[in-house]
Structure formats: C-alpha cells, structure tokens
Design brief:
The protein has about 550 residues and is α/β, with parallel strands linked by helices. Helix content is about 40%, strand content about 15%. It has an eight-stranded mixed beta sheet, with helices on both faces. Strands 1-2-4-3-15 form a five-stranded antiparallel beta sheet. A two-stranded antiparallel ribbon has the order 5-8. The radius of gyration is 40 Å and the shape is elongated.
C-alpha cells in the first residue's frame, strides 16, 4: 500500500492574497480608530479654543464692517474719519492706560459682534398638544351632538373647547378633565365603555386609568394610575387575628401600611429596609359582614395561589378544610399538617367533607346559642376560625353537594366559618345561587372583559386599561366597598419541581408542622345539635 502523500504547501499566490487581505483589514481598523481619535481631538480643541474662535469671528466682522463703511463713504466723510481717528489715537496715547482701554474696547466689540446670531426656532405646540388633539378627534364621533348649544365636540375644532384641565409627565398623559354634552347617555355602560376605550387607545393602553364620571355636572375625569408593586413573596404579615391579607393595592385605596420584605431569602425578616405597602385586608368572623369570598379568573390567573395564601394565614390561629374539585392536587402541601382537617380531591370525599361542614355549622350555632342563653362565653371549639377552601366547586358533578353549603353560608359570620371559592368566568352561571348571593367579598384576577369583571365583582370597577396583566393581578371588592386594584402575594406550591428552592423553603417555613391526619372531628350530628337548640335551628 503506497504511503500517504505529504500535505501540499499552499500556493504562493494564495499566501500573498491572505497576507494582503489581513494587512488591509488591519489598516482599515487602524484608519477607523484614527478617524475616531481625530474626531475626539477636534471636539476637545473646539471646546478649549471656543473663546478665541468667538473673538476671531468678532474681529473678522469688525474688519468687514469697517471695509464696507470705507467703500460706501464719500471722500469728505473719509477725511473726517481719518482726522477723528488720529485725534482719538493721540488722546489715548497721552491718557493713562489709554492703549489698554482701546484694546479692551476693541475686544468688547469683537465679543459682541462674534456672538451667535442664529434666530431661535419658532415655538412649537405645547408638550402633549398633539396627543390631546388626537384624543379629542377620537371622541368627536361619540360625543358630538347637534343639540348641544356649546358644541364642545365637533369635527375640526380645537381640544380646548372641551378639555378643561390636563397634566403630563413628560409625554405621558397623567390627568385629563373634560366636559361633554348633557345629551350624552352617561348612564349607559356600553356608551361609557366606548369612551374609555377611545381614551385608552389614544393615551396609551400600557397603563391603567381611573374614570370618574360626574353625571350631574357632565364632567369626566381620567387619571393614570401608577403601577402596582410586583408580586410580594409569601411571608408572615403584621395583622390582627381573623385578618387575612389578600394582596396589596394603591396607597389611595387604604389608610393602612404594613412592613413587608421583597427579599428572596427564606429567613429574611419583614421590613429589612423600611419597605411598607398598603394591604387589602379581609376580616372574617364576627368582625365583618362579608365572611365569605369568591375569586374569579381564568387559567394561570393566580386563583389557587390566592387560596394557598389564605390557607397559610388562617393556619396561624385556625383550621382549614380544602376541597379540590379539579383534582389537580394543588393543596397536597397542606395534607397532614396541624390545623388542616382534610384535603379532598374526589367527589365522594367532597360530599363527605361538606356534609360534615353542615353538621359542624349546626353544632357551633347550637353551642353559641346555648352559651348566650345561659350568659356564658361560647366554647373555644365553637369560636375557632374555620376556613373552607373550594377550588372551582362548579366542577362537582353532584348538584346536591352544593345544597350542603346553604347553612354554612348563612351562619358563617356567627359560627366563625369562612368559605373561599374560586370559579372560572364560564362557570359563573353554574355556581350555586346561595354561593353567589352570600359571597360579598369578591376578587377578579387576570385579563377579563368588562362585562365578566362587573359580574364577578358585583360592580363596575371604574378602572380600565393595562395590557399584559400578570398572574395575581386584578381587582378586589371587600363587602360593599369600592372596587380597588389588587396584586396578590406569591405563594407557589412547594411540592412542584419548578418552584425555586428559596420560595419552597419560605412557604414550608410558614406552614405548621406535619401531624397525623385522621378523620374529621366528630362533635355530634345535626339532629343532636337541633335538639340542643331547637329554636335556633328552626329559624335557620
């Protein structure tokens, strides 16, 4: 077998071409660097010699003026000017410091003539004027009315006819006040929604806006809301017993602040750097008239995270009963822990748990009624807070299961029982009527249309806009209060594989220790409770 041929040496022409290409590349790079350096030197030199350049430009203008005057002057005026110049020169020669004064006057004139006489650009429209005019033009088709005697909105008119006040932060509109025709149907939600959508489209849909409709004065006030804080990690909050922090809102929506930490460390203490945020506090037990809560949102909107947040806070001084109608196992981290009565994921288990809940409600009501009749304090086991988590109960196939909630819903405030349910927007029509009528605390999470949001909250929020709603962001309405913005805390499932280690450790540190999980406690049946307090059970 013949030996392999040795590697061939590159041809001389190829080596010359490569060397030439490399040399040209280095030369081009060096030339570009030299040009950049020369530009920097030129700029520094211009800044350094700017006064001299200014005086030089003035001297040239003085010489040009003198030459022009000499050419245009008559012989007699030239002779007079020469005689005057000689006389002034002689006077300055004999005057103390005369030559210096002449040189100073000459330099002062050069400085005056060397100034930049470029005329300033003509003044343009005020900042934001084009944006305001665009908003006005977009509102004309919706607010123009031929019956309006003031004709505030008409095609081709200036926005100042209708806009009374406006504020800008840079080029971003922060506040706008306008008047509209008294013939506009401002009590029609659809008409209002059209106006709001136009303002959002022209002012920017990335932010949320608060709309204040003054129907008596025919005035609309639009205020851009600042962004809410990002998701706050789960942590122990400074609250009183029977107070649950649902999340955080705007400083103008509450008069309360609590210390929080935004650190990702599992052992971080609250308020390490003085951070305080306004919370949305939900009170349970006898201190409120809204002991039950309903959270509405689509997939991945943060409903289950909100339930875990409520469960972690309830377990500090109460018990939790979780019914996962979806069977997803999102509450497996609660199973077997102290204070967790049961975590159910099956239909039969849900029926059993809700049956026990109805009997427990009757037992507590009877015990409390008996204690009041005898003038004693209610027993501890009848006053211990109990939170029932129902994750999408509309998925329960047995409709009779929902009737088991009637008694706990109606007597929840008296018996210290709170029911927290979740639902998707498409499930609102399938929820039990009692659950809809008794849940006076509402939360709407995720991107929802205006009609669904109003149905979920029981009232229109008056806030619109904002695209790309993150998980846990939405609105809340506690009792009969106003609708406010909400950012729920970040309480992930510690058993999920993709949960970061720091978040897993933080949530596990908030949960009580693992205890032996047994059957639901038995405190007597509903019949025995009715026999104890027949008058109370008969009324319920």
């Amino acid at each position: 077998m013949p030996a392999p041929l040795p590697p061939t040496t590159p041809a001389l022409s190829r080596r010359i071409a490569d060397a030439t290409r490399t040399g040209l590349g280095h030369a081009r790079t060096g030339l570009a660097a030299s040009r950049a350096h020369a530009g920097r030197v030129r700029g520094h030199a211009r800044d350094m010699f700017a006064p001299l350049l200014h005086l030089g430009r003035g001297f040239r203008r003085e010489v040009a003026w003198a030459r022009t005057w000499w050419k245009e002057a008559t012989p007699d005026r030239r002779k007079g000017a020469l005689v005057g110049a000689v006389a002034v020169g002689v006077l300055l020669y004999f005057l103390p410091y005369g030559p210096l004064l002449a040189l100073g006057a000459l330099m002062a004139g050069a400085a005056w003539l060397g100034r930049d006489r470029t005329p300033p650009p003509p003044p343009g429209p005020p900042p934001g004027d084009n944006r305001l005019q665009a908003i006005y033009n977009g509102l004309v088709p919706h607010l123009a009315d031929t019956h309006d005697p003031d004709a505030r909105f008409e095609a081709g008119a200036a926005h100042s006819k209708a806009f009374e006040h406006h504020e800008f932060d840079g080029d971003q509109l922060t506040r706008l006040e306008l008047r509209y025709s008294p013939y506009f149907a401002d009590d029609d939600p659809e008409a209002r929604h059209r106006i709001e959508r136009v303002i959002e489209a022209k002012a920017g849909r990335a932010r949320e806006y608060l709309y204040g409709w003054d129907t008596e004065a025919n005035r609309l006030t639009v205020a851009a809301l600042p962004p809410l804080p990002g998701p706050v990690p789960a942590q122990p909050y400074v609250t009183a017993p029977c107070e649950i922090v649902l999340g955080f809102t705007d400083p103008t929506s509450t008069n309360r602040l609590i210390p929080v930490t935004t650190s990702t460390a599992a052992d971080a203490d609250p308020d390490p750097d003085g951070t305080q945020l306004p919370p949305v506090v939900w009170r349970t037990g006898t201190r409120t008239n809204a002991p039950h809560l309903l959270a509405v949102g689509g997939p991945a909107s943060g409903k289950t995270t909100l339930l875990r947040t409520i469960a972690v806070q309830t377990l500090r001084d109460g018990d939790v009963l979780a019914v996962d109608a979806t069977g997803s196992g999102d509450f497996a981290c609660l199973a077997g822990r102290a204070g967790v009565l049961r975590v159910e994921t099956t239909q039969n288990g849900a029926r059993e748990a809700l049956t026990w809940l109805r009997e427990e409600t009757a037992r507590r009501a009877a015990a409390i009624a008996e204690a009041k009749r005898s003038g004693r304090a209610a027993p501890e086991d009848a006053r211990r807070p109990l939170c029932v988590l129902l994750d999408e109960p509309a998925d329960l196939a047995d409709p009779d299961v929902h009737t088991l909630l009637d008694l706990p819903l109606r007597l929840g405030r008296t018996t210290h029982i709170s029911i927290v349910a979740t639902a998707r927007p498409a499930q609102l029509d399938r929820l039990h009527p009692g659950l809809l009528s008794e849940t006076h605390t509402r939360v709407a999470l995720g991107p929802l249309d205006a009609a669904t949001r109003a149905a979920a909250l029981g009232s229109a929020p008056g806030i619109a806009g904002g695209e790309g709603v993150p998980a846990g962001r939405g609105y809340a309405r506690v009792g009969g209060g106003p609708v406010i913005r909400l950012q729920t805390p970040y309480t992930p499932d510690p058993l999920e594989d993709d949960t970061p280690d720091a978040d897993r450790a933080r949530v596990l540190a908030l949960l009580p220790p693992v205890a032996a999980q047994g059957a639901l406690p038995v405190h007597g049946t509903e019949t025995e409770a009715a026999a104890t307090a027949p008058s109370l059970v008969k009324t319920i």
